[in-house]
Each structure stands twice: as C-alpha cells, then as structure tokens.
Write a structure and sequence with these properties.
With 345 residues, the chain is α+β, with helices and mostly antiparallel strands. It has three domains: 70 residues, no CATH class; 163 residues, no CATH class; 69 residues, Nucleotidyltransferase, domain 5, CATH 3.30.420.10. The chain is built from 13 helices and six strands. The longest helix is centred in the middle third of the chain and has 25 residues. The protein is elongated and about 100 Å long. It starts with 8 loop residues before the first strand and ends with a strand. InterPro entries: RNase_H-like, RNase_H-like_dom_plant, RNaseH-like_sf, RNaseH_domain, RNaseH_sf, RVT-Znf. GO terms for molecular function: nucleic acid binding; RNA-DNA hybrid ribonuclease activity.
C-alpha cells in the first residue's frame, strides 16, 4: 500500500512495531467514525516483517487463495442468527419494491431526517418527526416510537385480535412479528400486514413532507387493509373472492388455512330492492403510473343517478381504488336524492 500510494499512506517503525500514518482527503463523517476506528484497529493489529516479501493471503482457505465459497461460509458463520429473519423478507408476500424497502428499513438505510443530517444536509432541514412533531425523526421513532405510527400498528393488529407492546427497534419488531401470528397457517397474510403497515407509514410521511397533506388514521387503516387484500388475492394465494370481500373479512385472512381458496362471507344478506349500487374502479398505467378513477350509481332497474370519471395523477393501483371509493362517498353525501337510500359498493 505504501509503495502504490506513497502520498496518502506512510508507515513508520518504532522499535519492533509499525505505525500507519494515513492521510485522508476529507474529514470522516460522524456516522463513519466507528467504521474508521475499526479499520485502524485492523491495521495496528498486524505486524509488518522486513524480511518477508509482500503477498496476498486469504486466511479462510488453507492454500491462501480467495474463493467465493469460503467467503460466503464466513459470512454465514458471522450472521447465522440474523440470516433467517432477512431471508423471510424475500418470500413474495408483497411486491418486490416493498420487499426491498423493508430490507433497507431493518438495516436502518431509510433516508429519514437524522440520516440526511448525517450526510451533511442541514440547510432548511427541520429534524422533527412530521407525523407527531414531538421528537427527532429516526428510523425507529418514525415506524414505532411515533404516537401516530403506533396507533396505526395497534388498530391493524386489533383487526386480528392481536395485542402487542412496542419494541425499541424496528429490527426487533420484525424478529418478533412472526411470533405474534394468530395461526401458523396464516403466515402469508400476517407477514403481508407488516409490509403494508410500514409502507403506509412511509407513504403517509412523504405525503406530509412533500405535499403538506395530513392522512387520518382511518384512511391509513383502509389503505393497509386494501393492500393486504390485494396481495393476498394476487400474490400466490389464489383466492376466488373479490378484493371488497377480503377487506370486509380481513380477520379471516389471518386465521384461514393456507390453500383455502375462498373466505366465508359472514352474515351476507340480499340488499333491499330500494337500494342503489355504486360501481367504482381505479385504473393505473403499469405498477406506478398515471391513474384514473371512475364510477356509476344505479338502481335495480338500471336508472343512472350519478357518473364520475377523472384523472388522479401518478398513483399505485391500491391507492387509485381507495380514491375511487372515497370520491363515490363524497358524491353520495352531496346528492339529496340519494340521502335516504341504502347504497351498496
């Protein structure tokens, strides 16, 4: 190293020991100080021999040559306790984009305000959590410690008759999540609930930061339920029920046996003949793209009371579906002729 980079690295011999004098081109970030100290300790713990020529030697192989196999075995030995928890992320319980997000989340790699501050971005940066405005926004605070976020966790777990106490870190929360599963055979829906909650919290946070719009707990809970229902139906379960049916019976997703093709729709009754039917839909170009919503309100004879169709910008399909339902409810509340009618969605 000293021969290749003489201007950056200098070594000095004191008696029988060597000391490396490394000149950095810029100061070490605070969040990298520990890593830098570890590197210095690694250098200082190895002694240089004058009479032996420099050579590369891989200590995890008897012949001293590097191999991917030995490196992978070494990593597995070091992280055996955590490997199972990380592997559980990549099981297809949600879209790959959200799996990647959760992997970054439990490694603390999400760009919350405290992380941005460590990168040196301080101009105009308000360090408060945008959801509660009480504490500094860290990964663990935003997704667990924040009062708004924890109330969302509590509401969503209550859907499955599960109670839990908050953990001090999102990694510990993820490790304990499977242990709170109501039944082992409902692992898919229960894991999907975790992914849906953290993604909804992150989306709500970004809407507040970038658009300055608030999201109520009820709206967030509905988004979580629609996401779980959408993934439960379309990502391997093969359920023949509609998204609406699954949402209305979200608890059954967490107690039905795996492989069950249909949920039991409890207490279903034929709608009264005087009721109106509001058919709504949301359409998106691709996974995330330009979206539009629409709907039509009719009675049993086909008479049309209301029609709407509009663009809603760039959205994912679940958000578009929820926006369509919300728009339909708003229209029903403003039309006097349907105020006393039973409306079925």
């Amino acid at each position: 190293m000293k021969d290749t980079y003489p201007n950056h690295i200098k070594s000095r011999k004191y008696g029988t020991s060597w000391q490396w004098d490394i000149k950095l081109r810029r100061s070490v970030f605070n969040w990298k100080v520990q890593q830098w100290d570890s590197f210095r300790h690694c250098l200082d713990s190895n002694q240089v021999c004058d009479h032996v020529p420099d050579t590369l030697y891989w200590s995890y192989e008897s012949n001293g040559l590097f191999s991917v196999k030995s490196y992978w075995q070494h990593l597995e030995e070091r992280h055996m306790g955590d490997s199972t928890y990380f592997t559980d992320i990549w099981r297809g319980f949600c879209p790959p984009k959200i799996e990647t997000f959760v992997w970054q989340l439990i490694h603390g790699r999400i760009l919350v305000k405290i992380v941005i501050h460590r990168f040196g971005v301080t101009t105009g940066l308000n360090m408060e959590c945008p959801l509660c405005l009480l504490e500094v926004e860290t990964v663990d605070h935003l997704f667990l410690g924040c009062n708004w976020s924890w109330r969302l966790w509590f509401k969503c777990m209550s859907l499955c008759d599960v109670c839990g106490c908050s953990s001090y870190s999102i990694l510990q929360w993820w490790r304990g999540w499977r242990g709170m599963c109501p039944r082992r055979k409902s692992e898919r829906a229960w894991s999907s609930l975790f992914f849906a909650v953290v993604w909804t919290i992150w989306e709500t946070r970004n809407i507040k930061v970038f658009d300055n719009r608030d999201t109520s707990l009820n709206q967030a809970e509905d988004l979580v339920k629609f996401r779980v229902a959408w993934w439960f139906k379309n990502l391997g379960n093969g359920s023949t029920d509609t998204i609406t049916t699954i949402v209305l019976n979200i608890k059954d997703c967490c107690v039905e046996a795996r492989g069950s093709k249909s949920l039991k729709f409890k207490d279903w009754r034929l709608s009264p003949t005087e009721s109106l039917k509001f058919n709504v839909d949301g359409s998106v170009s691709g996974v995330m793209g330009q979206a539009g919503i629409g709907g039509i309100l009719r009675n049993q004879n086909g008479k049309v009371f209301c029609v709407f169709s509009t663009k809603v910008g760039v959205q994912d399909v679940i958000t578009a579906e929820v926006m369509a339902i919300a728009r339909a409810i708003e229209l029903c509340m403003t039309k006097q002729e349907v105020q006393d009618k039973v409306i079925v969605f």
